[in-house]
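Incident log, entry 3
Record: Nucleolar complex protein 3 homolog (796 residues)
Problem: checksum mismatch between cached and fresh output.
Input:
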Amino acid sequence: MKPRKNTKRVPSFRKLLRTSKIKLDNKLKNKQYRQQSAAKKYRKEQKKLREAVRDAVLRKPFPLEECKKKQVAEKWEEEDALPLDMMDEDDLKLMKDLAQKASFLTRDLSSDEPVHIRKRKHEDVIDKYEKVPRRMQTEPEKELIHLLPIKDKGGIIPQTMEKPVTSDAQDDEEDTEEMEEAEDFNEEPVPIVTPEEMAAQRRQKLQERKMHIAALASAILSEPDNNIKKLKELRAMLMEQDPNVAVIVRKLVMVSLMEIFKDIVPSYKIRPLTEAEKATKVKKETQKLREFEEGLVSQYKFYLENLEQTIKDWKQRKVKKSNVISLKAYKGLAEIAVKCLCELLVALPHFNFHNNIIVLIVPLMNDASKMISQLCIEAVKKLFKQDKLGYASLGVVKVISGLVKGRNYNVRPEVLKVFLHLRIKEVELQKDSEDIAPKKKFMTYKEKRKNLSRMQRKWRKAEEKLERELLEAEASESKEKKLKLHTETLNIVFVTYFRILKKAQKSPLLPAVLEGLAKFAHLINVEFFDDLLIVLHSLITSGGLSYRESLHCVLSAFHILSGQGDVLNIDPMKFYTHLYRTLFSLHAGGTNDDIGIVLQCLDVMFARRRKQVSQQRALAFLKRLSTLALHVLPNSSVGILATNRVFMQTFPKMDLLLDNDSQGSGVYLPELDEPEHCNAQNTALWELHLLQRHYHPTVQKFAAHLTVGAPTEGSGALSLDLSQRPAAELFEAYSIRGMTFNPPVASVTPRRKDTFSKTDSFIDEELNKQLQQHISKTVVHKCLDFAKHLKESSLL
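Fresh output:
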């Protein structure tokens, strides 16, 4: 009879290879879990055994003699105990027999429990100890490691290797020993340190950290390729745990890393390698460069994440669990982190993660802390000014537009005012000039064939090819690409402006919007001019704007009309009337600062549109500006008189106001708000005579110059310093904001009182009398002139 074959087949090699790796890992994890559970159960049993032995040792019976003495002493102390002479002989004999037994002596006679109850308890402890199964000390369990199988004639033989597993019991014993050592160490007395010693220790630690930071930084800067790993060591110091020096060390490391990255970062953006590039073999130098770039990008990313986390912790008022740095100190760390981010935003606009820095910086422009907000705003302004290509500017403008819309237009006006520093206007003007300039022309084939020989044509062809290559090399960025970026940036800016004009007309952002429209008005599409002018006029007539905002509306309207708006047939008479009516709102108080905007408006309204302005309008503004010069500060008077000088030199027949004779019918009506119908040609500039007696010498010079007709040559002409400077620049140059007088006043040494004589006092009295008489006469004359004027107006 043939033996039965084994029906269980040995798994094939392919089947073993097809076995899921996850399944094998799960089997290994289950096996390790079972081993740990068995070891844990064994440790619990050993612990119970030790406790049982400890209880058995503590509960051993007292010696017989000691129990006997104790029992006798307690017996005699009882008040109800009977003396021996009062007991019978049978009782005494019974007591003596019982005294020979240990259970009688060790028993508490005052208790009512049975005699053998304690014996049973003691026996239970011993029985439990005896019932615990004895276990031999086995060898540590082995973990099997599966190896590649072996195939022979009989089939496939699996191969395994044992790996010893360290028992957890040994680890527990080592942990207990370490705990005991730590307790012994903690029991040592802590030495008392004086404040002077603590300060000295802190200085020493801080000096050590500074030297370590300097050593790492110098090593990285000297050889960045070889020491790129030291960046990680330096960055690890951002987690300084010593509470005495943690704040200063972290600040120093932040600034040091920022300066290091500014120095070692290349002038190009590092992109990640593809799988094909990683698989290809390259030279050692190329591989070294790749490792350097990869390490630099990763450490730069981790550094930016650390800065971001520091700012977030401060914003959320969150302190780490270690409590190394207090919440108050986090503000200083956050300020340093913001400074580092601002420096990197300006210094590395081409490198990786620049858009991430923009997303961090732009919301901080609207931060409640004025210092942090100002830092971020100044950084964005610098970025706009130095950005020639337009990539970084486009990214910042996108984020600002989203911030304004997301906050429902509830942001600081300074956030929108950064748009005024965009370089779009200058680049567009440069492009126009390049388009207008004649381009270099190359000779055609016919011209070469007619004028040049064969050899000359060959040389000329090579020269033209070289010139074309040079022209292409100079143009690093194509003009079309740059124009496209600037157009997209400007579209986002105008979308933001128009949203505010449409949905948030009472927002404090309106002045910034009007300033921006005035700056970029020449780039707005002509199709929007009519609608935009209607919106600006409706804002002025609504009465909800401040005086400064209404001036910005007027300035924006005339900037629009002075650019591409010249081709439109639009009469902005309503804006002239509004400015003429509100000029007397300016005075020597708070509105004196608005005169700078008024001077810009007058320059755009008259100097650049001289052909569209009538003589009556110019005469009316000249008269009202001369009257206004009497009521403002000296720097404002200088700016207004400089504007009057432009009026006299630009428009003919302005010298009519220097003559007392009237030039037509009617009387001048100063209270009328229509410049075309106030009959300004029938008045005179009597204000210039008063301004010649002004206390400011520059105002006197301008008044005297205008009195003689504002000549460009001769004795009445101004100096080059005053004649060649615009009115707005003169207004800023003679400003008295810093409590300074320009030109400076010469110091006069006062005379002592004892040097005065009687003649001096007599002369002073006579001078005072004459001055009072002169003032009274002047007042009388002015009153008479005013009465005459009222009489003439009443007759009309």
